[in-house]
Structure formats: structure tokens, C-alpha cells
Design goal:
Layout lengths: L4 E5 L7 H9 L4 E7 L4 E6 L2 H11 L3 E2 L2 E2 L1 E4 L28
Antiparallel strand pairs: 1-3, 1-6, 2-3, 4-5
Length: 101
Amino acid sequence: MQVSKLYVGNLNYSVTSDQLKELFGGYGEVKSVNIIEGKGFGFVEMGNPSQAEAARDALNGSDFNGRTMKVDEARPPKDRGDRGDRGGGDRRGGGGGFRRY
């Protein structure tokens, strides 16, 4: 493993950043924890790649607060391009929007 940031999925919605920090802290330095509220997943950044690998190997598939956690390397965010146009087509009426007749 060459990254130190982990994806942590299938979390119980009541899990807090402090709980994850304590859990992952058993495997090394926890630099940051970011839970995506209302989504059931988050990210934990460990001090170095070997600590991240140890945490992943130990915690992936383990039970935490009644849910089986999924722990894996975090992937870089996708390039979403120009997010200014959320239409789905051009603005001349052809495309994904509603059309008046």
C-alpha cells in the first residue's frame, strides 16, 4: 500500500469522528478523520502507508457498532469537469431538461 488515506464504509450513522480516531489509533497515528454525514462512510488518514495497511488488514470486515466495516485505500476524487452546467444538454431546448410546447 502506498497511500495513507483509507475509505471506511458501511458505518453506523451514529459513529463519531472521535470513535473512529480511537479505533484506528490502535494501529498508528491518525492524522485526520472525515465522516460524510448521513452517508454511512468516511475517510481516515493515517501517519504513514504502513500504518494504513495495518489498520486496513485488521479492521476490514470487522464489526463496529453493529455493522461490518469496509476499509480500503481511498481513491483520488474523480474529475467532475465544469460543474457550472448541471443541465444535461445545451440551453437551446435539446437535452435533459423540460421542454415547453
